[in-house]
Structures are given as C-alpha cells and as structure tokens.
Amino acid sequence: MYIPRHQKTYLSRAMTRAMALDHPIGDPHGGPAYGERNDPVSAIISIGTMLFTGAEVIAGTATLMQGLMFAGSAISLVGNITGNKTLSKIGMITGLAGGVGALAESAGMFASGTLGETFGYGVNSATTPLGFEDIGALNQTPNAQVPQSVDVVDSALAAPVGGQPTLATEPLQDLSANFDPGAVQVVDGPPPLINSAAPGLQSPSAANMPLGFENAGALQGAPAVPGAPGAPAAPGAPGAPTVPGGDIPATPEMVKIASSSTDPIGSLAQQMGQPIDPSYAPNIRPMTSGEQLWQNVKDAGSGVMNFAKANPGAGYMLGSAISSVADVLSGKTGAQINALEAQGELSKAQADKLRYEVELTKRRHANLNAGYVNVQNPLATWTPNFQVTPAAQPGLITGAMAPTPGG
Amino acid sequence: MEGLIQANQAPESRDDLTPEKVSQGIQIPDEFKEAYERVVAAGMQVMFSKQSNQAAVDSIQRGDGPLAQRLGMAVAGLIGMIVKESNGTVPPQVLIPAGVELLSQAADFLRKAGIEPVNNKVFGDAMDVMITSILQAAKLDVQKIAGFIEQKAGQGGAAPAAGAQPMMGA
After folding, report:
1. Helix, strand or coil, per DSSP, at residue A242
2. How large is the ipTM?
3. This model's pTM is above 0.80
4. Are B25 and A272 within 8 A, CB to CB?
5. Distance CA A35, CA A43 (A)
6. Contact yes or no for B40 and A311 at CB 8 A
7. Could you count the other beta carbons within 10 Å of the beta carbon of residue B78?
8. pLDDT, tens digit, for every residue of A333-359?
9. Looking at the complex, does the CB of residue A244 fall below 8 Å from at least one CB of chain B?
10. Chain B, 145-164: which have a CB under 8 Å from a chain A CB?
C-alpha cells in the first residue's frame, strides 16, 4: 500500500498572491514569492503557453494544411484589409487550382514524410494520392502510368482537347451540376467540366467526395490555359493585373473580385456567396464613461452569442461557461430574455441583501467578542472638547439650573 | 460621424474586423463541423469562463513583445492546450480555422472591453503569429508555403514573387 509521504495543498490564486507579498514559506528557492503558481487555472494557462514553444509537435501536416484551406477566405480577407501580405498569400490557397493537393507536389516542403501519407481526403488517399485513376479517366487513358510526382494541374491541362472526358465518379457529376459554360473559354476544346467558381467546392459534399479538392482544382485548371483567346491574362504576365498595393500576381478570381467592387469585404463576401452585412459600416466605440465601458463589455459577448447561434451544437458546451448567453442562444423570445434579466436583477438584489445581513451579523459577532461598550459605544471614545470647570462639578443639571450672572 | 471618421482612416488602422466578418470566411465541411465547434467552444470556455477569464487576460497582457505577438501566441497556446488535453483526438483540419475564430473572439473582447487597443493591423499581425506558431508546431515553414502558394497562383507564365514577405518578428 502506497502511503504518500507528503501531501501538497495548492492554494487559490488570491491566497497565492497574498502570500507572495510576504516572504518565502517553506521552500527558500521557490514558491509564490518566486512567481510559482500551481493553482489549477494557472496550470492550464501555463500548459497553453508552453505547448507551442517546441514541446509539442502536431502530427498530420497535410491535414493541418487542409484546415488552412477551410479558413483561407477569412485569412485572405484579413490579409487584404490589414495589408499583411503573408496572410494574403496563404489565404490564396482557397482559390488555388489544386488546393492542398498542389502543395503535395512540392518535395521537401514538409519535414515529415510525404503529404500523401497523411492526406485527409479518405482512406485511399494515403495509397493513391490525389485519385489519379480519376484523372486518368478524364484523360481517356485509364491505364496510363502516372508518375508519383505528376503535377495534377498540368495533367488536367494536358487532357486531349478534342476528346470528350468521361465522368468517372458520382461526386464529379454532382459538381458538374454547377457548371457554368460561360465562365471560361477554351478554344476548340470541350467546355470545362466544372465552373471555376463553383460554390460547391467549399460545400460539405465537395469535401466528402473521394477525389478531394485537388482533383476539382485540377478540373478547374482548364480555364487557366494561358494565352487562349478569351481567357484572362496569365497572372504575372506583362499587363496582367496585380493585387493593389502588393506584388502578388492576381489570379482570375482576384481580378474578378477587384473589378466587382473596391470594397474588399463586400466583394469577398460576394465571392463567398454570403450576403453583405449592412452593418459593415465602421463604428468607433469611444470610452466616455463607466456606463459606456460596461455596455461595451456586454457587447463583447455578442460574438460568442453569434458563434453559438450559427453553431447550435456548441451551445451546450458554452453553457457551463457562459450560462446566460447559452440561455439566450437556445432560442428564447424577447420577453423571456427580459424575464431572465429581471430575474437576474432580483437575484442580485437578494444577494446584496444577504451580503448586508452577513456583514451585519459579522459586526455583531465582532462586537460581542470585543465587548460592545469598548468597540461600538461612541461615548466610550468620546472626548469632551470643553473644559469642565470646578463650578460645574455638581452636575450638568444642577449647573444648568444655577442662576447665571446677569440672568 | 464616427463612421465617417473611420471611413477616412486607413483600413489597417480601423477596428471593424468583427468576428462575424471573419467567420463568414470560414467554411467547414460537415464531417469536421462537430470537431470544429467543440474546439472553439472549449477555447471560449477557457477565454471567457468566470474561473479563467482573468488568467487568460493576464497571459495576454503580461507577455513579452508587442500586443499582436502576445495575442497570437496566446491563442496558439490555447489551441495547443486543447490539442494536448484532447490526447490528439482533435482533427488537425480544424485547428487553424478554430484558431482564427478564437483569435477574432479574443480580439473583439479585448477591444470592446477596453483592455487593449486592437485595431485591424494588430489583429492581422496576431493572426500571422498564430498561424505561424501552429504551422511551426507541425514543422511547417510558413514562408515556403506562402511562396509556393504564390508561385502556384501565378502559374502559367507568372514568375513567383521575389521571396515571401518576412513574418512579423522574424
């Protein structure tokens, strides 16, 4: 049987802080006075801050990159607005022909293994990177030997323009429903299979398709045939547009964005198929008073509420942390919210009352312990501020009744 | 009037990048939706729960370097903590989107509560730091990635731009 020799008691932050003001207790080389905090909250935070300093390595580089693609539009949006070129470039991965799959071709970019090993697109992706058999079907050369280092985009571009490609899988047929022949022009070739701006590429169904994003991107590669009449100028070529204020060659999508509007948020929102929020109007929140500050603090929770509104599954998880917010998010009406607020005010008033009574009781107890007369009796500590003359010694009443001179 | 004042400011000095605007750009497939929500909810619990909110704010305020670095590192650390606490069960696909969401929420909170002046520039730099930190944890070189994406985007006759933009603080 194991008997612990030492039992440690971890203090709260408040106690730790209070003790840190004093001097080291017990351990002359550590403890609160040295900034050592072992309470649970500090432990969690310290785990979080220490983790990414090299102690932990995230496995699955390609899957991580796929996440970069999911957030690509947001990253690109932030990069364009803030002028952060790194974010702008990384965000372009969403519109990149081939997506993450294109990155797979880059040997040596990733330190651990090949990207295909950890590709997150399906079971077959690990052994059959990028679903080459489907590319082969499009090329009408299903038995062709496709080298492992083949450039997927180029493979698509290399498709015989005279032949009619065969849709090999059902998901591709689904994507073909979004086909917009007018969006691209390829001379003497078949119309492109998939609209380059097909919104379904970012949809869950697109994510579930066996071919993955890269294949869809490969199919998108057709519109990018450089030099084709009617096709947009090759990005980076002389005369080709670039991103305003930057040296990034503009992709056709970016040209479209730039030409549609000068408002980066509005145009990007259009590209994403999202309605433009009319509340986009900039707003300054001056901190003029404590009341305003409190209002802003309350507003700070609005983002959390909006997130949980958009993601109901997260509501119950947020409930334990922000219970009132979770209540609101659960679909309560305005009257119910008002009732909750009133209930909160009532609870607060009751708590104040209780706190007052507790304080009163504590004071009574203190008085009893210390002796009421000595502590609370104002006469006990009252010092007369006048000189009592011997003539007044008989007493106040007698003295007062005594005839005054001249009276 | 206030809107007019901000409209005249440079985009990076404004503070109109709200979590709602950023969230619109995050497209999570259904298969990762639940994991994404769980990670974000867990992160919000740490950031905003009564028990740990003050500690989270302290970790941002008392760190080293400029505000953007402190904010980005704090959110990256939060993501790392979630990864560790989940024993690696979180799909890596959701880490960066969740980090973007959490960062926008944290920035919004700091801004509205008047704790730190987080404008668009600070927010962008913080996102830069956060993404770089997460990618570095996976042994990924963000400069190579950015350069390669740029090269691919300019494929078809475009020469890649001369090097990727240096990262903040690098």
Report:
1. strand
2. 0.83
3. no
4. yes
5. 13
6. yes
7. 31
8. 556 556 666 766 777 777 778 888 888
9. no
10. 145-150, 152-159, 161-162, 164
Which of B55, B84, B135 lies nearest to residue A51, judging by beta carbons?
A: B84
In this structure, what token pair is assigned to residue A303?
């983002």
Q: What DSSP designation does A54 have?
A: I
Would you put residue A333 in left (φ > 0), alpha (ψ -120 to 50) or beta? beta
Grade residue A259 by pLDDT with cuts at 50, 70 and 90.
very low
Least-confidence region, from A122-136, A139-153, A202-216: A122-136
With bands split at pLDDT 50, 70 and 90, how would you rate the model's confidence at A383? low
pLDDT at A31: 61
- Contact predicate B114/A296, CB 8 Å: yes
Contacts of residue A256 in chain B, CB cutoff 8 Å? none
Determine the Cα–Cα distance for residues A367 and A217; give it in Å rounded to an integer. 81
For residue B13, the one-letter residue type is: S
Can you list the pairs that A310-317 forms with residues at least 24 positions away whose Cβ atoms lie under 8 Å? A310/B23, A311/B33, A311/B36, A311/B37, A311/B40, A313/B33, A313/B34, A313/B37, A314/B37, A314/B38, A314/B40, A314/B41, A317/B37, A317/B38, A317/B41, A317/B42, A317/B45
